[in-house]
User: Fold Glutamine--fructose-6-phosphate aminotransferase [isomerizing] from Alloscardovia venturai.
Amino acid sequence: EKGGWDSFMDKEIHEEPHAVADTLLGRFDLEGRLNLDEVRIDEEIFRSIDKIIVIACGTAAYAGMVAKYAIEHWVRIPVEVELAHEFRYRDPILTSRTLVVAISQSGETMDTLMALRHAREQGSRVLAICNTQGSTIPRESDAVLYTHAGPEIAVASTKAFVAQITAAYLIGLYLAQVKGAMYRDEIRGILDELRAMPDKIQRVIDTQSQTIEAAATKMINAQSFLFLGRHVGYPVAMEGALKLKEIAYTFTEGFAAGELKHGPIALVDEGEPVVVIVPPARGRNILHSKVISAIEEVRARGAYTIAVAEEGDDDVRDYADVVFWRPQCPTLMSPLVDVIPMQLFAMDMAKLKGLDVDKPRNLAKSVTVE
Ligand code: M6R
Assistant:
């Protein structure tokens, strides 16, 4: 069933271009008009939504964090992202104008299920983003937008993550369309950018795998890793840290690069590996120079720096010990490519340590208890 791959994780990473392309398929026309009729929530209701709360756990929650940056920017309504188990027990503010988006690959995560039940009891509508047809979470939601990533077997989630971001972006763009928050041309432009992502993901896999494996071989004895990013790079850093914890059993922490001087930089010592997600450099992006200075700061304290950066970003060469290159793309699209080296790196580390990458100790594919 692994179709010639060493592991399901390997196979599933290689399926990521398809996961994104198939999730986009048939959901908009060439004029850039989204059609989410399958979701079966009245346009009128979508138009009345004044707040979104994303509930999810683990990787699905990081996909939600990425979507927050995009949806707030496009639709201009507040988007909160909360771990489902925290949300349920803190008396959250929910109204009939709140759209709760429950993200789950398996559709069986009990924490997420309990949270969505609570939201519905409070009169909010729940829209699920789910990868498993007919599972409990979509069945109990008001509506569902399926990710078409195909079955995900490895415990560490990979292709589901990029498909979840894609689906959440479609919901954001749909809201922008029905609320008139953006011009048709703008929406069409973003859909074109999304459509270009599968090839870019493929390119990362094709061109970076060897460099990534060599870096993993070099770092095999590292005791811990720090991951940092800013803006959408922040949830990607957390996701990269989670992957390495889960399958390589390495202590990692992912945090926002801006937090460095508020504490985490104290951890940096000679040889400490620090993975940095670098935002696009083009358009004199202020975040780019801020992240570059974060690399300088940790390097000055002896860190071994691994950057994920855009092709053509010459500044990075001077500061990073290793660079994993990704094709150029707009900032909001970058998580779809930046996460790929994170996943490959974790997988290579786990394999080199002789671990079972598909079935890490102590973990189950879906967590069906609260
Ligand atoms: O099936 P779900 O998407 O609801 O699962 C949520 C988390 O349990 C899941 O993403 C978990 O964090 C993965 N093991 C991450 O690789």
